[in-house]
Amino acid sequence: MKNTKGFTLIELLVVIAIVAVLSVVVILTLNPAELLKQARDSNRMADLTGLKTAIALYLVDSTGTVSIGASADTCYVSISASPGTRCTNGSDYWFGAGYTTIVATTSRAVNSAGWLPVNFSAITSGSPFGQLPIDPINNSTYYYAYAATSTYHSFKLVANMESSRYQNGGGGDVESTDGGTQAAAFEVGSMLSL
Question: What is the pLDDT of residues 97-154, one digit of tens each?
Fold first, then answer.
């Protein structure tokens, strides 16, 4: 009789079943869709913080106004279609009552011709970015919005968080804890009460 070494079919099937069960448990635990949402939210927070810093640098370095071309009581957005009620008076507005939404361009130019009407190229040391950041999804639900006061010395940038972790009530809630007036939006700027 010949003695052969190896695994039996039953042993192989048991190992494959165990690996399959472990794979399902890992996938359910990690929830890749939620991890992608969290990654996009991290990008949103970094983008708005970077824009806030760049606008502050612009204010210190240039004429002291956020933008010559910006209009007071106007909300500028990074999308090509009107976002609905988030920038205007309504139950879900991000800025004060009466703000008008401007969807003049989806350009990412940094010379005030982009969606954000601030001329970053006028900064003495040059623009802090090559092009304006936009929301990772950039649609009518997830986009960036900007408004300034009539003197243009105060401003606010807003974005909607996507993941359950960073949304209002989540474990890493940044919407209701950012000091702004909107409990369901992430806000940064020099005047969060806009």
Answer: 677 777 666 789 998 888 888 889 888 888 999 999 999 999 888 999 998 876 657 8
Question: Could you count the other beta carbons within 10 Å of the beta carbon of residue 97?
Answer: 9
Measured CA to CA, the distance from residue 124 to residue 128 in angstroms comes to 11
Q: How far is CA 189 from CA 66, 119, 193, in A?
A: 12, 17, 10
Per the prediction, the chain carries an average pLDDT of 85
List of long-range contacts for 146-149, beta carbons under 8 Å, 24+ apart: 146/51, 146/75, 146/76, 146/77, 146/116, 146/117, 147/73, 147/74, 147/75, 147/76, 147/87, 147/95, 147/99, 147/194, 148/66, 148/67, 148/70, 148/72, 148/194, 149/72, 149/191, 149/194
Domain assignments of the chain as residue spans, ordered by start: 34-189
Model confidence, pTM: 0.81
pLDDT, mean of residues 57-81 = 72
